Every structure is written in structure tokens, then in C-alpha cells.
Amino acid sequence: MYKSFEELERDCSHCERCDLCKTRHNVVFGVGNKNAEVLFIGEGPGENEDLQGEPFVGRGGKLLDKMLNAVDLDRHKNIYIANIVKCRPPQNRDPQEAEQEACIEWLRNQVALIKPKIIVCLGRISAMKLIKPDIKITKEHGIFFEKNGITIMATLHPAALLRNPANKPGAFKDFLNLREKIKEICDHTY
User: Which of 106, 132, 173, 184 has its CA 20 to 30 A from that of 144?
Assistant: First the structure.
């Protein structure tokens, strides 16, 4: 167990636990408020994220930022954003189970240090890893679960919304429900 975020991030930046380290430009550790009560977790970095070292900075990230801003959330002020894996899988493929397992301890330590009250899984991979392996993201997004004393919800991945814009209203409803849940259980006013 790490005592400081800085130590955790430093060690993670040198990680060689799986082969993804061989092709990365940057470890994409995370971004945001380290004391946030709301933690967003995606699956892994894409090309733009790998190059810039920050999660969700491409087209999907711009859409995510719009949805966050609509419910008074901001990646630099009151939330934290991380991923299951910290290095980009080749051609943005889904991270393999072995890669997820090799990397999950970094995320567990992030969660332990941040101590969020709410976790939002961005997409199927994150939801399968953190909520339940058989989750049906298109049917179960927006539903709140309780795990280890943390309220957790899945929503559709921003990249999936770009591919299928008809799902945007449902995903936005998830964000509206999230805003209500934040009011209900979080200490800070957003």
C-alpha cells in the first residue's frame, strides 16, 4: 500500500509488468483532483492519450468533457479520471485479461488513496472488471451498484457514443442521475 500519490505515480511510470510497456510513449496514470469524491475509470489510453500522457484527450475526451461540464464536473477541479490499464494497447484494441491483471494493482492503489464515494465506469471493459464480468453495458448503464462501500455505475464509453450517436441521450441521462447521486451521498457541493 502506497502512502503518497507521488510515490505511486513515480513507480507506475516505470512499470514493465506486461508487454504494453514496450510500445508506449507515456504511462497514462490519471488526471484530476486527488481528493475527488467521484472517480471515472476507462479501459485504457488510445493514441492521443499515449502521446499526451493524459486520459480522454481525443474526440471521446472532448465529448466526455462536455457531458461532465453539463453536470458541473471538471477533470481538473472536482473529479479524477484513470484507466484499468495505464499503457495503450496496440491499435486501440481492448486490453487483454492478462494486461488488466498486470495493471490492476496500480488502480487499486489509486482508489485506496483517493477514497472516492462514487466510481463511474466508462465503457464495457471497465464495467466488466469493476462491477461484474457479465454486465450488459447497453442495458445496465446508469444503474447504481454498491461494492466495498463504494457506489459504482457504468455508462457508455465516449468513443462508443461517437460511433453510435443515437445512444447519447441515454448516456447523458446517466450523467444527470450521477449528479443527483452526488448530491445525495457526497460531502462537497458540485
Answer: 106
